[in-house]
Amino acid sequence: MGRSAGGWRLVCLDRVGSTNDVVRRAGELGLTARLAVFAELQTAGRGRAGRSWQSPAGLGLTGSTLWQPPVSGERAGTLAQVAGIAAVRALGAVGVGARLKWPNDVLIGEAKCGGILIEIAFEGDRVAVAVVGIGLNVLQRADDLPSTPYPATSIQLATGRTVDRNLLAAELLTALAEGYERWLVDPLKDFDAWRAALSTLGRRVTVQGRAGIARDVEPSGALVIERADGSVLRLLSGDVAVAAPGLGGSGSRPRRLRP
Ligand code: BTN
Question: What helix, strand, coil percent values describe the chain, rounded to 5?
Answer without folding.
Answer: 25, 35, 40
